[in-house]
Design a protein that fits this description.
3-stranded antiparallel β-sheet
């Protein structure tokens, strides 16, 4: 499931402070039941400086960040169930964090997998 995002919306959202992007991230992921990461030939990209897996609420935001060290990486969808049941436990096991909705020039909110899960599940509970 996805929606259309204009170039202006991408620029506007990526210019927001990290805390505002995080609020939008959890709302959108809860609504659309998917997140987006970047993958390259080696698999999921991870921020070398942050030891965090970056996630976005839409492929267009991920694509806008596929530059620099992530040049050539492609957006890849993570369905909500896979995120909660598979990916977050793997990140926890590997000692990695989640970078929530980073922009090309600003870090996203860095959360432990447990904190990420708590915030996402709280947002999901609002929609029930």
């Amino acid at each position: 499931m996805s929606w259309e995002v204009t170039e202006e919306e991408v620029r506007r959202m990526l210019a927001l402070p990290a805390t505002d992007r995080a609020v939008n991230f959890f709302q959108l992921v809860a609504d659309w039941e998917e997140a987006w990461g970047l993958q390259d030939a080696d698999g999921w990209v991870v921020g070398k400086d942050t030891d965090a897996l970056p996630l976005w609420p839409h492929s267009d935001f991920a694509q806008a960040c596929a530059q620099g060290a992530w040049e050539g990486a492609s957006p890849a969808v993570v369905p909500l169930d896979d995120l909660l049941d598979d990916l977050l436990p793997l990140l926890e096991e590997d000692g990695l964090r989640v970078a929530v909705f980073p922009s090309p020039d600003r870090a996203g909110a860095l959360l432990s997998p447990a904190d990420f899960r708590q915030r996402l599940e709280a947002e999901l509970a609002i929609g029930e």
